[in-house]
Amino acid sequence: MKRKDEIKNRLDALREQMKLHHLSAFIIPSTDPHSGEYIPEHWETRKWISGFTGSAGTVVVTLDQTGLWTDSRYFIQAEEQLKNTGILLFKERLPETPSISRWLADVLEKGEKVGINGWVNSHQEVESLFHSLAYNGLNLVTMTEDIFDSIWEGRPELPSNPIYILDEIRAGVSCSEKISRIQKAIAANGASAIILSALDEIAWTLNLRGEDVHCNPVFISYLLITENEHTLYIQKEKITKEVRNYLKKNQVQIKDYAQLAEDLRTSNLSNRPNILQVSPLTNEALCKLSSQYTQTIIAPSPATLMKAVKNGAEQAGFRKAMEYDGVAMVKFLQWLEEAVPKGNETEMSIERKLFHFRAEQFGFKGLSFDTIAGYKEHAAIVHYEASPDTDMPIKSEGMLLLDSGAQYIDGTTDITRTIPLGPLTEEEKTDYTLVLKGHLQLQNAHFPAGTCGTQLDILARIAMWKKGINYLHGTGHGVGHFLCVHEGPHQVRMNHIPTSLEPGMILTDEPGIYKAGRHGIRIENTLLIVPARETEFGSFYRFEPLTLCPISKEAVIIDMMNDEELKWFNEYHQMVYNRLYPLLDPNGQEWLKKATTPLKR
Amino acid sequence: MKRKDEIKNRLDALREQMKLHHLSAFIIPSTDPHSGEYIPEHWETRKWISGFTGSAGTVVVTLDQTGLWTDSRYFIQAEEQLKNTGILLFKERLPETPSISRWLADVLEKGEKVGINGWVNSHQEVESLFHSLAYNGLNLVTMTEDIFDSIWEGRPELPSNPIYILDEIRAGVSCSEKISRIQKAIAANGASAIILSALDEIAWTLNLRGEDVHCNPVFISYLLITENEHTLYIQKEKITKEVRNYLKKNQVQIKDYAQLAEDLRTSNLSNRPNILQVSPLTNEALCKLSSQYTQTIIAPSPATLMKAVKNGAEQAGFRKAMEYDGVAMVKFLQWLEEAVPKGNETEMSIERKLFHFRAEQFGFKGLSFDTIAGYKEHAAIVHYEASPDTDMPIKSEGMLLLDSGAQYIDGTTDITRTIPLGPLTEEEKTDYTLVLKGHLQLQNAHFPAGTCGTQLDILARIAMWKKGINYLHGTGHGVGHFLCVHEGPHQVRMNHIPTSLEPGMILTDEPGIYKAGRHGIRIENTLLIVPARETEFGSFYRFEPLTLCPISKEAVIIDMMNDEELKWFNEYHQMVYNRLYPLLDPNGQEWLKKATTPLKR
User: What is the ipTM of this complex?
Assistant: First the structure.
């Protein structure tokens, strides 16, 4: 069957279902029940129904039209993939593009019903959609049955990889202790039970890890915590005997993943809590079923903040993981220096080589995100991912931006280096030095208790702002401990994120400069917040750089750096040298020594 | 009659009124109907009923108890002034101190009524009080009649000083143009009328000034703007013939101040608007009467932001006013240098001298706030105001903090200098240099369109944060154009203020270090936001320092300054020299030259 007929048949099948449920439209987002960054294929309904494979986009189906809303990263790809399907492309953030609610108001009659699958939309998103549709006179219907189950033939099963225990020496705090802290936190809200749906929170709470999701060592599940006993809703084939015993010891019973909905529908939970807490980021179907079952309060999960503040064992693990990763990076950089002049490398070939160096390290468990290896003007595309279509040969000129990271059993890494491969223009050097100045200013900040990331953000930007340059992404994000590489609730960015920064939190420090068609530069270390001092003015904190890898010196314009910045830069390199030297062979040691000799005026 | 009997009689009279209105408690704040910083005596009901004269505090009266809530600045004063009155002192922000709502919940029964005078509490405050009382089972009753009118014998009249026109050359934009811009802005909310209650907004809109309020050139009034005609509610004796003609020409009729309440109560406004807009900062009585009269929407007044962005004429006026003020400051500083060694000066005597130098200047209209002249440890008290009890002789040692400003017909000034009068300790010099570094870092920032003050705040703090030092006040505030010296909506401070900074806005830059019992340092200039450049990354803005006055060099530790900071410091002094030199006599010119010679390593 031709692609366009396939898409047509799928849309027809959905429309049959919509008619059965008296729906005039159906909205299909790119999200899953657990609000994760990467989506298992089972929930890629938007991709299945439209043929559009980009990571972001929303399909809206009415009884006679279909539209796809996506952002500028995907305009060209979407146009190609939607060709001949009859699906309209709506380019987000262009002035002429209507919002989904606005468009639906135009094509539907007042009072008509718009359906969504409650399992793949968070409570928070549904609240906002409800209001914008209501404003346009339309009714939102949240379905708690997955409409695609009946129309998607050969729908991929949920992944069923076995899960495993993260030993307590690495986790630092036992599963029962974490559960007890969560119970105390929700009691302050008057709740006696909570359903966790964020996969990293479940993995963190239980000290378990899995392999269900690309780059994230998590497993698909829900966790119900009550006063007396707890239930992990998960596909049973994932549970080894060892894990079963471990969970039993921790008063966690196991039920099938799909059973949670049934248990809520039929009030079959063993101890009916008076008040049940769920997060506003939990999917709306679950929130709806919970509130039909018992009194439900919607409040942020206490596990989010607990998980963000790393304990001593997790911090020690991070330091180890950074040593593994640093050794891999140094080996790679040394190799790159020799390989590029030979002329056989491309963006994709060096990506594979870097993977190889990391895979040799202790406790390597895969990448923490898809590597960005952007050469020359490709580096100006912030979310660039080299593909066979775009793969560029790498020569002894220009700069290579390399943003990568790995999952190790001891911790998660995230590092960006921009590597000069030959002579650079003055503009390239100036931009490199501005990024470096920003990076160092943030890394060396001190700040009082209660400071939030928004207050610190300018430290990474002020040098480039003075030259009329800015970057539009955030400056830093949290990182999980052998968990997701992007982790909240704290962040460093221009818009307001109220969470206070606390000792034990991890933050990346990654300013950049991107000039379309020319070059892209980013320098990123992962930092740990540690206490700095107590004075009559209170507690002050600072950062300890965790990442261990030289930062290229070739592009630095020394006269643009002030004495303090030069000192910080050299101190960082001295620390990298001290920590990595004992872990390298003589050849690597020599390279490291050269790469970390102090910069002088 | 003894003081304590007087207070008792007043409380008894209030309790009689409370019983008449079935109220179990009455809350008396320190605010007035116009949410101003300074309160005319007529509305000082909290002071009248309790005898407590501090600027901040709330009295709560039940049928058998009275409490005063105030902050740490006033703990000692309040204890003295409440002696023998039976009024309980509640020290705010101490862990053992209950909130007012909490305390009322303890002493009253559920369902009892708590009264407030709706005229002196803003809508916003009443909303929040309503919720906290409701949470404690109590009912809030907002009275739209002033209960004190019937019990306060000899209550001071409202001030009735004549008002005058600010010529259009100075205002830059005509009154009718401003009204038309306000009309357009409220139309976007669907409103066809607005009541302005903030006195500076009324003065700004009408290009009128008055003398009703201490340090603020405003006049007590309300302004109703409708589609066709407008009404200024004001005591008629304030209106000269000239002003009457001017208002008439601008379609503004005049009614008595008290008539607004009556007009709303009796629907006596000439054109009943369909939708009337009032600000959440408007007093609750007015909001309540408005919503009884017609459909009312509560939204920020558009005049707030319009007034904050200064037009070309206002900017030019500020520059002139800064020259007057700079000449006065230079004359004063020169005089101080000679006067202090003679040994006859005190905090209060130099305050008078500074007033004298300012009063000589063109268009002087009084101070813009009460001068803070804090010598040595007095400077560590952030809101210090010298009084005969505290007045300290000034010697050739230590530092003098001088925060002062004036109203000139061309603009409002606000400047702080900390002046070393003799040898200093290393700690004093270090702290002085840290404050100077922060001051210079903020003054020389560049930032993209859309940046808010919270993002910039750290620039003034990061140097001292690295030494474990902080200050708890904001770093900067807006300043009115020959209006209030503290003006919103934009600010630079640690907590989040979302208003974007725009060219034309004024900001002070006033970091400080305060060490109790030792010393206090603050350096403040007033800045104007101006465009810096347009690039492929958008519009960038910077600051133009308006304040023209040397900053003492004696306390600077040059080695703590980086090259950029030294350059900025010298550039500022060069600019001050260039601008003030032609305005001084040869003696002053010589002093200025010395005070502004560049600092060198």
Answer: 0.91
Rg (CA), chain A: 25
Residue B217 has pLDDT above 70, yes or no: yes
Separation between Cα atoms, residue A131 and residue A426, nearest integer Å: 52
Question: If interface means Cβ-Cβ distance under 8 Å, which residues of chain B face chain A?
Answer: 445-448, 450-451, 454-459, 462, 465-466, 468-470, 494, 496, 498, 515, 532-538, 540, 562-564
Q: Are B503 and B333 in contact (CB under 8 A)?
A: no
Contact yes or no for A418/A379 (Cβ under 8 A): yes
Q: How far apart are CA A206 and CA B471, in angstroms?
A: 43
Half-sphere exposure of B557 (CA within 13 A, CB side): 14
A564–B469 C-beta distance less than 8 A: no
Return d(Cα B572, Cα B576) in angstroms, integer: 6
- 3-class SS letters over B506-555: EEEECCEEEECCCEEEECEEEEEEEEEEEECCEEEEEEEECCCCCCCCCC
- Residues in B closer than 8 angstroms to A562, CB to CB, are 562-564
Tell me the per-residue pLDDT of A382-395, one tens digit each, with 9 for 90 and over. Answer: 888 888 989 999 99
CA distance B225 to B187: 12
What is the least distance, in Å, from the CA of A545 to any CA of chain B? 17
Half-sphere exposure of B124 (CA within 13 A, CB side): 11
pLDDT of residue A537: 94
- Indicate which of A537, A542, A559, A560 best probes the interface with B, i.e. most B CBs within 10 Å of its own CB: A537
CA angle A448, A449, A450 (to 5 degrees): 110
Return d(Cα A595, Cα A334) in angstroms, integer. Answer: 10
Q: What is the mean pLDDT of residues B258-264?
A: 92
Q: How far apart are the C-alpha atoms of A175 and B532, rounded to whole Å?
A: 55
Q: Which residues from A are below 8 Å from B536, CB to CB?
A: 515
Q: Is the pLDDT of residue B384 over 90?
A: no
Q: Give burial (CB, 10 Å; 0-12/13-18/19+) of A350.
A: buried
Q: Least CB-CB distance to A458: which of B459, B515, B534?
A: B459
Q: How many beta-carbon contacts under 8 Å exist across A and B?
A: 78
Full-model pTM: 0.93
Q: Among partner residues A458, A494, A496, which is closest to B496 by beta-carbon distance?
A: A496
**Which residue's structure tokens are 């950062």?**
A543
B496·A498 Cβ contact <8 A: yes
Residues B437 and B528: beta-carbon distance below 8 Å? no
HSE (side-chain half, CA atoms, 13 Å) at A361: 33
Both structure tokens of A196: 């966790």
Q: Is the pLDDT of residue B270 over 70?
A: no
Pairwise CB contact (< 8 Å): A537 & B470: yes
Nearest-Cα residue of chain B relative to residue A500:
B495
Residue among B469, B534, B562 whose CB faces A563 most closely: B562
Q: Cβ separation of A455 and B457 shorter than 8 Å?
A: yes
The minimal CB distance from A540 to the residues B465, B515, B535 is found for: B465
Distance CA A313, CA A331 (A): 27
Looking at residue A228, what is its pLDDT? 85
Per the CB < 8 Å rule, is A470 touching B563?
no
User: 3-class SS at B8?
Assistant: helix
Mean local confidence (pLDDT), B520-536? 97
For the record, the structure tokens of B288 come out as: 């309540």
Give buried/exposed letters for B80-101 (b at 16+ CB in 10 A, else e): ebbeebebebbbbeeeeeeebb
Residues 6+ apart with CB under 8 A from A329: A354, A357, A415, A417, A549
What CA–CA distance (Å, rounded) separates B56 from B120? 14
Minimal Cα–Cα distance from A44 to chain B, Å? 36
